[in-house]
């Protein structure tokens, strides 16, 4: 199979990740719950992953790294743990439903929001966000890289704008973690939401939340943490405050190996490989008069490893089915991001999304463009 659905989850995983997952599933005890050696070893492995993640994403300390069941969960922790009635939020018009649905749910509790339009020019994007701010704006949320169009948004500049007005800033790094350098502390990101299973090459059902000040958030779930068990109140110190219940130990071990893989391979090298494959595809598709491209040629400065298109007047699902029958896996439809599709007026038929990974090769891209030429 030619797998080009890496924006949904990367496949294949590096061998080191598969090994770590297998060994964690076979030889493990519950971390932080008991004092015997197997449990202690699990606790050490979790801490080691926390340290690696803190280093990769510029968290203030390992305790500012929270393990979660995924990026969606991380987004919910911020939106529901922070916002109160009367708070206003500004989001980009490229957000995923991992942001939009919890935010929409919070409108029932008196939260309001405004979507700022992402422009092709970053200065204009910043000015659209600035105009959307109100005196009640508590939080600005902007995805780092669009999961549909691959466009990189000026999150560092938005964070600086927020700092100027004393507003908190959250970025959804689902499509950028492992592809762009992220330093939460240096860039002034208050919250960074990250899945383990995409550009970090970990497994599904694991994620991270990097938080600048854990006291900003209330918990959205409470439970056993293995610490302070005499008290019926949730611990108020991180990470225990936010990590109730037995953790996804195999997922965290896989993530730990994934972080090592990304670090040793090099974020820049992974990104350049994906962009060179996508720009090759873009050039080949541009020469095909039947293909509709919506965005500019992918480049390293302003794009992540994702692009979308349509073919003639075919529905995107039909196109994906055609490719699937020829052994090519892509994702069509709306990609859980209806606003991003409204932006380019593709909300009716969706688009065909191509997302390579570090393991995609040039020949696979050539085959894809040839199959599309035959449609
Ligand atoms: N945000 C974006 C931009 C995404 O692409 C995704 C995954 N499709 C998510 C959030 C949610 O990630 P997860 O499914 O791992 O919770």
Molecular structure report:
The structure is a single chain. This protein is an alpha/beta fold and 375 residues long. It is 39% helix and 14% strand. The chain has 12 helices and 12 strands. It has helices spanning 15-26, 37-57, 71-82, 97-107, 122-132, 155-165, 184-187, 249-265, 267-286, 316-325, 338-343, 362-373, and strands at 2-3, 65-68, 88-92, 112-116, 137-143, 168-172, 191-195, 207-211, 291-293, 307-311, 328-329, 352-354. The strands form 3 sheets. It has a 7-stranded mixed beta sheet, with helices on both faces. Helix 2 packs across helix 8 and helix 3 (71-82) runs parallel beside helix 4. The longest helix has 21 residues, at 37-57. The chain is globular, with a radius of gyration of 21 Å. 4'-deoxy-4'-aminopyridoxal-5'-phosphate binds next to helix 3.
How are strands sequenced across the largest beta sheet?
A: 2-8-7-6-5-3-4
Q: Count the helices. How many?
A: 12
* Gross morphology: globular
Major sheet size, sense and barrel closure: 7 strands, mixed
End-to-end gap: 19 Å
The residue fraction in helices comes out at 25-40%
Radius of gyration: 21 Å
Q: Strand-and-helix sequence, N→C? A: EHHEHEHEHEHEHEEHHEEHEHEH
Kindly state the mean pLDDT as a whole number? 97
Counting DSSP E segments of at least 2 residues, the number of strands comes to: 12
């Amino acid at each position: 199979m030619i797998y080009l659905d890496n924006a949904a989850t990367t496949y294949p995983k590096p061998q080191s990740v598969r090994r770590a997952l297998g060994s964690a599933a076979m030889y493990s005890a519950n971390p932080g719950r008991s004092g015997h050696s197997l449990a202690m070893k699990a606790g050490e492995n979790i801490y080691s992953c926390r340290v690696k993640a803190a280093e990769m994403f510029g968290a203030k300390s390992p305790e500012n790294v929270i393990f979660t069941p995924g990026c969606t969960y991380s987004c919910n922790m911020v939106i529901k743990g922070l916002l109160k009635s009367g708070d206003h939020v500004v989001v980009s018009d490229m957000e995923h439903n991992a942001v939009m649905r919890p935010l929409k749910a919070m409108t029932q509790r008196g939260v309001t929001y405004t979507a700022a339009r992402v422009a092709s020019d970053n200065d204009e994007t910043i000015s659209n966000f600035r105009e959307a701010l109100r005196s009640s704006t508590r939080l600005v949320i902007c995805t780092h890289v669009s999961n549909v169009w691959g466009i990189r948004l000026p999150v560092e500049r938005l964070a600086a704008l927020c700092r100027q007005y004393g507003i908190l800033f959250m970025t959804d790094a689902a499509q950028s973690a492992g592809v762009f350098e992220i330093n939460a502390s240096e860039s002034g990101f208050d919250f960074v939401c990250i899945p383990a299973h995409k550009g970090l090459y970990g497994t599904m059902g694991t994620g991270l939340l990097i938080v600048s000040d854990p006291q900003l958030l209330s918990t959205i779930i409470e439970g056993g943490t293995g610490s302070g068990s005499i008290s019926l109140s949730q611990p108020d110190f991180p990470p225990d405050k936010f990590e109730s219940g037995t953790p996804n130990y195999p997922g965290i071990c896989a993530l730990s190996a994934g972080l090592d893989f990304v670090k040793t391979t090099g974020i820049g090298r992974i990104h350049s490989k994906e962009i060179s494959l996508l720009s090759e595809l873009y050039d080949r598709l541009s020469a095909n008069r039947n293909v509709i491209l919506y965005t500019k040629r992918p480049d390293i400065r302003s794009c992540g490893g994702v692009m979308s298109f349509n073919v003639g007047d075919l529905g995107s699902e039909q196109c994906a089915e055609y490719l699937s029958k020829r052994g090519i896996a892509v994702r069509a439809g709306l990609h859980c991001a209806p606003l991003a599709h409204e932006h380019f007026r593709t909300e009716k038929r969706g688009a065909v999304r191509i997302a390579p990974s570090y393991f995609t090769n040039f020949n696979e891209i050539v085959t894809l463009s040839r199959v599309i030429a035959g449609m």
